[in-house]
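Regression check, adenosine monophosphate case 368:
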Amino acid sequence: MIQLHDLRFEPFISEGKINTAIDAMSDKINQDYNGKNPVFLVVLNGAFMVASEIIKRFDGDCEVAFVKLGSYQGTATTGNVDTLLGLNISLQDRYVVIIEDIVDTGITLEEIYRILEKENSTDVRIATLFFKPEAYQKNFRINYIGMEIPNNFIVGYGLDYNGLGRNLTQIYKLKKENMTNLVLFGPPGAGKGTQANFLKDKYKLVHISTGDVFRYNIKNETSLGLHAKSFMDQGQLVPDNVTIEMLGAEVDKNPGANGFIFDGFPRTVAQAEALSELLKEKNTEVAAMIALEVDDEVLVERLLERGKTSGRNDDADEDIIRNRIHVYYEETAILKQFYLKENKYYGVDGVGTISEITERISRVIDSL
Ligand code: AMP
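Current build output:
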């Protein structure tokens, strides 16, 4: 297994298999272009490695040009590919073989085709080392295919993840992460932080409390902290864009985690959607929302009690406490529906001793 940036990848296609595929493709290309002096149009960056192998195996005259297009940003195809850079020879009346590392949606290729139409070539064909039939959205024919592969995100042999991995001599695929990601949910004062502290040790999870991260930033007077303080002191939510970005950064600090306990996040639908997206990019998902159910008056009592020692401005004043609970019902409680729809909602009685509640939550986690 290897790690590139924040993601882990596992071996998928060996160098031997790649070479066999290239041998077969090259044999066909050699037969078809015997005596035709083709132009190999290598689509950078990813195709440099396979192109070198095909071209080394080509008998007879040929020319090579390198062109550049971009369609990947991170792990998803963006679909807005538009320019062809670096075409420095005339393709008029020439046999052209486009060499690609991988064809997935076909959007990149369609764009190259469109641009090449103006060149009046005799014939344009496509050779690609990898082809993803499940992802392919176009109709035109791919003439030479090294290997068909499923719709995994792969790196190696010229293909990268955000710049890394091109030098690997075999293909790796994104590792299916066996993570347990929990959303600990409930109104302010429900005991999320207390329970998270026990659960993180018991299940070896990383605990991220957005409230704690904000308070840490306030204490250190960072610009994030200064921004968040005005909202927090009133018991209001910090704006989504700020909170989501901060959460993403916290997750990225823990690349090898077994899973996360999200405490105080998400608090809005936009945050829940952002969390799904973020975890999907890491090939994992939320396993469960565990909601601590506690009566409002018990909450107010608990928070006032905590305020005597917590030093938190938002625990000190009953109006602000009631506002936080109000904000919870107005903006956050709706997330129960969000996770219910995904069959991931688990309500737990949040009244009892700390260990009783840990026990109840553990029963849910153990059943996942
Ligand atoms: P907590 O410690 O979870 O009670 O959070 C304290 C305060 O931090 C909240 O009242 C909000 O002002 C802010 N905060 C914490 N988490 C979030 C979040 N996910 N979205 C917006 N604001 C948050």
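Comparison notes: Residues 188, 210-211, 214, 231-232, 235-238, 243, 264-265, 267, 271, 314, 324 surround adenosine monophosphate (CB under 6 Å). The chain has two domains: 2-174, 182-367. No diff flagged against the previous build.
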